[in-house]
Design goal:
Largest sheet: none
Shape: elongated
Number of strands: 0
Distance between the termini: 50 Å
Radius of gyration: 22 Å
Structural class: mainly alpha
Length: 76
């Protein structure tokens, strides 16, 4: 397993230690999980579970069809 050295101010370190303690894990495990969460390249399972959760939600095409005139855009 690789090792990484992190440099942070004392306030940040205290917050990391507190968060790790509240989660019941080591600082290393807490930071590792944070990195995994922030670098994930797929949706978490809970997002896929939401598919079909709102059967009365209108389709995007229906929402767009009812729109009025578009707002003028600023020129670049």
């Amino acid at each position: 397993m690789a090792q990484v050295t992190l440099y942070m101010d004392e306030d940040t370190l205290a917050r990391v230690r507190e968060a790790a303690e509240e989660a019941g894990v080591s600082v290393s495990a807490w930071v590792s999980e944070l990195v995994r969460e922030r670098t994930r390249n797929e949706w978490p399972p809970g997002v896929a579970d939401l598919a079909g959760a709102w059967p009365d939600l209108p389709l995007a095409e229906d929402l767009r069809a009812g729109g009025g005139e578009d707002t003028p855009r600023e020129k670049p």
